[in-house]
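An instance as discussed:

___
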Amino acid sequence: MKSGKSKSLVINSLVAVIGIFLVLWLLDDSEAQQAAIEPPQPIPQVSVIEVTPTARMAEIKVTGTVKSRWPLALNANVSGRLIDHFEHIQPGSFIRQGQSIAEIQDIDYVTALASAEARISQAKLTLARYLNEQSVAKHLETTNNSNEFRLFKPHVSAAKAELSSAQANYQSALKRVQDTKVKAPFDAIVLAKHTAPAQEITAGDTLYQLASSQTIDIEVHLATYQWQQIVSTKTDSQNDAKSDVQSNSIVNAEQAPHQENTEITARITDNQGNIWQSQLRFLSPTLNPQTRQQRLLLTIENPYQNSVMLYPEQQVNVSFNAAQGSNTILAPATVLTRDQQVWTVQDGRLVQEEIQLLSEDIEDSDQVLFSFSKQPSRERLLVRYPLSNMLAGQQVNPLMEKESLLAEQQNEQEGAQLGDQLDKQLAKSTFAGAQQ
């Protein structure tokens, strides 16, 4: 009995082991078949736009700061009580060069001027007396061994020095009298006024804050490549003007027009949309050590004469005409990567390309103007929304922007239909459960 039971147990164990191996073999075979028939990964789709290089006039737009020309803190040169502070002159008023704008009591300075004048008269009298005595001494002197003191030479020298000192003192006193009447040093606009009636003024006190009313400056910082584009525009214009003059002179020298040098100009726009025309005043010969940009100043003539005035210390938009590009691309700003490059699709694969950025701020702030560094005249499929995980040579399925929008709309419609079907099935199951 026992031997029969043990044989049966062994047989059952063998059958179980064989069954386990058979099940494992079948599972491996089914997984291999599933892996063999598993479909390939779908090729990622990218939204692209077709771009064609064309000739465009680039426009460089930057932000500038309005700066006063000749900002001046007009200080008092003498001390005293203010006897006239000219009430009608207030911040925003315009004053002419030489116009009186404040008057300080001058009685002490007039007294000092009179004393200086009397000192001059006394010095002249002393000098005349010593010159007369010197003349008499020379006539009475019979020997050649006379010393200088006997001929009054030291006395005459001292009298001349005293006269020079008295005259200098007189000029100083006269200057102080003149300083009691404060006048505008140039045509100016009053930015601030720091005087009050009968105010006690100390020499060095600030009376007015002034700035030139004839011109105003715009401070702008440009990258080197931007300045080169602006200079190229001016050079091309001058060359065109010279060629026109030469061609006209060949036809009729007497009718050749007079061509002036083309100046670098810029359009200034404030936050309210008001526009002014400006000209280049100067370009700084050094670069900013931090930003490596060039500083230049633009100037606007008579900024306060129009109904709309341009006041200092405000931000404005500055627009320059840059060199005309023959192979430029105008595209949405989203095509740029963080390192100022773009992705294109060539033969179904991604290609990262370098560009030369011509303008980052067109009339539409969402667009950029650039040209390709290599083969700039070739048409391209430009990736609209580049991703950080894109790889050069990666195979993609390009979708034109219109096709991409249609695909998105189709996906939204399919999603909405699927949601409706799920809602209907859920409603049916809920109704059936309620009946049960």
In short: The chain is about 35% helix and 30% strand. The chain has a mean pLDDT of 80. The longest strand covers residues 315-332. The radius of gyration is 46 Å.
